[in-house]
């Protein structure tokens, strides 16, 4: 008997919750992140509290779990309801913390997610001075993907005075966020 979409997603969430295998958790989270790409799954994923699961995984020590959770949030946050949920759940801070990941995919997803989450109400948080400083540093990266994405962030989401303030501050301080590994 074939499972319906909701039942299948519920089975994945249950498997994630009950398994002790790190490899199985990674695989399930990757599957959930992929399902988050399809807008027809958004309601089911909200119902199953997958947004909370993704947000919770952002603080895990396992970089693979963080990568897939960040990718899942990136896939979900273009939807207005999901965006509001992430903002209301104080999701911006753990997303900003992912900017210091050594995993390139995690960082790229975090930058993209911050772009998608920027609204007039959230802009002060998504473009806070430490974020702008980080984007300035990323814009100088040899990694073209990261450099281009950070440059777009600075141009489209930050005001010229914000960028100038971050530039001036960066001249006087050591920025401690490492660039992700290629």
TrEMBL record:
UniProt feature coiled coil, ranges: none
InterPro entries: ARM-like (IPR011989), ARM-type_fold (IPR016024), Armadillo (IPR000225), ARMC7 (IPR042462)
Record Gene3D superfamilies: Leucine-rich Repeat Variant (1.25.10.10)
Spans of repeat ARM: 49-91
Protein name: ARMC7 protein
Organism: Prunella fulvescens (Brown accentor)
Short name of any one Pfam family annotated for the protein: Arm
Leader peptide range in chain numbering: none
